[in-house]
Predict the structure.
Amino acid sequence: PILGKATDRNLPFTAIGPVAADQDTFTVPKGYKSQPIIRWGDPILPGAPAFDGTKQTAAAQACQFGYNNDYLDIIPITSTSALLVCNHEYTNENIMFPVAATPAEADEQKRIGMNAHGFSVVELTRTGPGKPWTYKPTGKLNRRFITSTPFAVTGPAAGSDMLKTAADPTGKKVLGTLGNCAGGTTPWGTVLSGEENFNGYFRAAGTTDSEKRYGLTDRATSRNWESLEPRFDARSADYANEPNRYGWIVEIDPFDPTSTPRKHTAMGRLKHEGANVQVAPDGRVVAYMGDDERFDYLYKFVSKNKMRPLTSLANRKHNMTLLTEGDLYVARFIGDSPAAQIDGTGTLPADGVFDGLGVWLPLVLAGTSQIPGMTVPEVLVHTRLAADKAGATKMDRCEDVQSSPKTGKVYVACTNNTDRGKVDKEGPTEVNPRNANRDGHIVELTEGLTGDADPLATTFRWNLLLVCGDPAEPHTYFGGYPKDKVSPISCPDNVAFDSDGNLWISTDGAPSTLNQNDGLFKVPLVGKERGRVQQFLAVPTEAETCGPVIHDRDGSVFVAVQHPGEDGSFAEQHSFWPDFVPAGTVAPKGQFAGPRPSVVQVYRG
Ligand code: FEO
Ligand code: CA
Ligand code: CA
Ligand code: CA
């Protein structure tokens, strides 16, 4: 509402070509400039020292911008002030630190890693509309959430025995948030984020059905935090439930630096990619959520209560309770073409389209479990087991899921599934039509059977918008658009919309599939241009493009550049972006002789 009026302009561009995977450059179209707003280690809290990658400490990291920024939003406050909110999914110790010389040094590196996870909230300022932003190192709303930050647990599973540990006999207070991947900003101005690969932080007995289903195993973890904090070793009776306290959707209020962040059990426990909220016509809110694992599921949460207009702080407070109570569903997809026509190659069936109907299968409805033999808290803590029993459709790794603000249609990024069709694994289905699905696809889902896109509907229609890959290959599909006029795209991950309703897709995996750097792509969804994928930017070598934010009416685009140079080592870095300190030289104060995950703005200039 604030952006755009005075500076109404779109983002015209000529697509860039693919950038080879060894290029350590951030590439934008002609007529645009790019500039990092904030980098790993930049100071954001009082007393934070300038970044020194040769002498990093846990104390410094707790007051500096974290590592591996993923979900991102730039929330405008006025035309010259905004809040940057992003999460820090994980750390790449191999390129952050030299090999530890002593046990004490190794422990300090673990503590730095813990303090580089979580969230950052940072105030931004600029000189005028359309100008680039700079961050305020002393902003009053600046905040870090780290692995020791207390989170409150809400919803029907809060306080259940399944969430209690020796350190928290209430089962309602958890320290930290881990593996935060994609997310969404709510209509009431809070930020949601999914705890995705939380299992990798815990050593567990790995013997229960639930532990097996969530990938918890009795192996030393790569970060070995269990050697530092007993709660990361779930083999002990004291902390057997600690992993149950992760895998949730978290909600933070970036506008209140004293607020307690929360984990919402009503939305189920999975390897949550993220959650995006849509408001139904009657005011209830609906959140779409993916579980990013091969052969896992797509979910929907519907709140019990209705959103109130943001006309008072009391109403906002009410809205912040909406995700604590409601119904939880999982999706079943039914193709409309004969199974024999879905041959696993990506060849279109005779009706010319991968499409069909679907049903939202209830797991929890009106406070009642819909799964025989499981209580509501059990359904919410062991949601994957409940969804297995319900008969959900196994998907090719649902990542970001978001509905179009223009049409209400829902877009599901299925990033890839190289196991589809393998021995003992499920073969092709119409909604996941390729065996060894290397490049991923995008599902377009319309709620209801009448086309009215009512998010409360329990049935839907669906079709594949994109079957990704090199358009020269026959197994790809670009919404029917001529394939000689589109950009190659692989492994769709995060999605966003511009104000015209075009879909923007960021990718994670193109270096290994198409030997090109990951990037950000625009695709129109209606009219003659539907399916015309055009690449807007490319990130540096070995990086993933995350958190796209499209302020087209302000002429700017923002992305989080995650894990640049991730396959290098501290001694032999693969990326030097964005500081470009020459290898073998001493970094000037505040810079780093290696890569730094950063939030980048692209603007016209
Ligand atoms: Fe963290 Fe599913 O990507
Ligand atoms: Ca069909
Ligand atoms: Ca992701
Ligand atoms: Ca991904």
